[in-house]
Amino acid sequence: MGSKGDGEPTSNPGQLSKPRPTCGERREGSGAHRIGTWKGRVPECDGRCARLSVDDRKLDVLRAIVEDYVATQEPVGSKALVDRHHLGVSPATIRNDMAALEDEGYIAQPHTSAGRVPTDKGYRLFVDRLSTVKPLSAPERRAIQTFLDGAVDLDDVVSRTVRLLAQLTRQAAVVQYPSLSRSTVRHVELVMLAPARVLVVLITDTGRVEQRVVDLPADADDALVGELRARINALAVGQDFASVEARVTELTERFGPEDRATVAAVTATLLSTLIERHEERVAVAGTGNLARYGQEFDHELEPLLSALEEQVVLLRLLGEATSPSPVRVRIGSENAQSGLLATSVVTSGYGPGELALASMGVVGPTRMDYPGTIAAVGAVARYVSKILKAH
């Protein structure tokens, strides 16, 4: 993956892009708790794992430690690696490899008598060397499709998506509503509620609906409202919001003096709807999942739960998505938000076209199932993008 934890899946829904070749070929490992496939080429050294001599065997040992620690939540010793994994070397060799990995900062010993646990640097190398991730099962894929296909509108899509991500990953899930600033107008409807009151309905290309009631300065008839509706749609449909604002601003002057106050009231309401920052909305689910990680993560729960209550912090954690496809992973200290050093964030952009309208992702301890989480976030983001494109 790219710098600062960014990684992009290939066209295969179950794969991440192969790392850039510089250091030779990798052979496939064979761990008892395999949660991803480790093969392909070693990525280009870029400063995180650069200039450190980590050969194939040590990488297999690191993979086994990560997998066992994620599965058991206990520090991993050399005896456990011998018993659970077919590494093909003696216990003494494994101990030597563990000592080398510790010297290079990939694993650490939490206390004197314990085994070893991965560091942020170790998790990063583990994630960077993944070429494929654990694919979702056929029942899981059908469940995603069935659950999301039942959504009746955009709010329901977001609500279902955030709950689905939390269930699939058993982490806290966060979904940003599609950004209005990146959307285009599908239709503007004007509905007469009373002679001097009109309902303005804005519908975007993602299916998002915004409604405002306008109190008019004078009574209006159906003919005027119908003409105004037609002219607004002729200017706005298919346009992004910035373009609509420029086009609609001059609309008032195209009507007679007696109607301009009414037209100005409607267009002013429409323009205020366009420029409001509704993209700051996010949905959160699954915070209760974080309690299952035990006492070691307890001291991190309070700052993480506080972060999940702050919309600005959540948006910062999700990051800026530029395209629907890349899955990005930020581990521990790679997160800019203070107080979340034991937290990892896996995110993806989503949207109906080549431009992402928003982000979704999951937040949890660094001790997470990265291949499974990456697969789930990527699959759900792709399916939601298809839903938005179809509507």
Question: Could you describe the 3D structure shown?
Answer:
- By secondary structure, this protein is α+β, with helices and mostly antiparallel strands.
- It has three domains: 19-130, Arc Repressor Mutant, subunit A, CATH 1.10.10; 138-177 and 281-390, Beta-Lactamase (2-Layer Sandwich), CATH 3.30.450.40; 183-278, 2-Layer Sandwich (Enolase-like, domain 1), CATH 3.30.390.
- 40% of the residues lie in helices and 18% in strands.
- The protein has twelve helices and 15 strands.
- It has a six-stranded antiparallel sheet, with helices on both faces. It has a three-stranded antiparallel sheet with strand order 9-10-11.
- Strand 14 (343-350) and strand 15 form a beta hairpin.
- The longest helix has 21 residues, at 370-390.
- Mean pLDDT is 79; it is low at 1-53.
